[in-house]
Structures are given as structure tokens and as C-alpha cells.
Amino acid sequence: MEEEKVILVNQFDEQIGVMPKMEAHEKALLHRAFSVFVMNDKGETMVQQRAAHKYHSPLLWANTCCSHQRVGESNIEAGRRRLVEEMGFEVPLKEVVSFIYKAPFDNGLTEHEYDHVMIGHYNGEPNINPDEVASWKWMKPIDIKKDMEKSPEIYTAWFKIIFEKFYDHITQDSTAI
């Protein structure tokens, strides 16, 4: 099976190339990515614990799902595809914000991503893919914040960045879905 490729971009999110995912992470090259946040009627966010065999950030808690867009795939199409692949359900998504971050990992890989943040609304339970997700739960934002302050090491780098910088914006936009 051919390795998944990522879309290399410049600081304006303009495509400048395509590269195998691992190579892009080894070279710390800026590439397009997305993060999906699904919220329910109680104002809770669905968070997932990444599977134990993930190539970075295994067993850390993150937003509902995240990944990389494929060539020719819109941000929304990519988010909806990955939500089904990881969490086993589909909902309409809305893109609310994007930002660039760079996070090196202990294994020599670096996430350098132009991340598109999307939100959706769902009140059910997911049908998680155990190859992707170890566990999941609904959490109120105040509980996530308290837990991140107490145990930051159990959360992914991008989730901490998004939560700190953009969560108020995300939750305000969630009412417009």
C-alpha cells in the first residue's frame, strides 16, 4: 500500500507540492491539516484518546478527530471523511478558523501544520475505529481546561493550542451550525 501523502503549503495555504506524510513530518515541512470538534446540546465536546500504535502522540487526548486533506479534497470533505473513518458517524461541518503551528516530538518527527478547525453537532455515541481511537468521552470545556492545567502531558500539542487560543471562538460559532 502506498504511503499517504500530505499537501505542502506556504504561509498563505497555497499548495506548493505533495509529499509522503512521514517524510513531511521528518523534514518539518508546512502542510495542510484539519481538526474537527464535535459538540452536543449540553455544550460538551467529544474528545478522543488516540490509539496506542499511532506514530506520534499515542494514547494522548485530542479533539474529536484530525488528519490531513487529500489532493483535490476540500477541508469539509476531508473532515467528514475522517470523522466517519475514526468515529463512525457523519455530521455537517463548518470551518471556523485556521492557524499555523509547529510542534516537535520526542521521536524526531515534527508537526508543522496549517490547521483548519471545523465544528459539528451530534448527540449520539460514536462507533469508534479501534485502529485509530483507544477511547472517547464527552467533556465540558471548563473540565477540559482544568484537566489540561492539572495534566497537560496527557493532551496532544495541537489540542492544547486550539483550546487555549480558539475555544471561545469555536463555541460561539457552534450555535450557527
Taking all Cα atoms into account, the compactness measure Rg is 15 Å
Mean pLDDT: 90
Low-pLDDT runs: none
Total count of helical runs of at least 4 residues = 4
Largest sheet: 4 strands, mixed
Oligomer: single chain
- The 3D shape can be described as globular
Task: Tally the beta strands.
Answer: 9
| N-C termini distance | 37 Å
Class based on secondary structure composition and strand pairing: alpha+beta
Strand order of the largest sheet: 6-3-8-7
Element-by-element helix/strand order = EEHEEEEHEEEHH
The residue fraction in helices comes out at 25-40%
Strand content: 35-45%
Please summarize what this structure is.
With 177 residues, the protein is an alpha+beta fold.
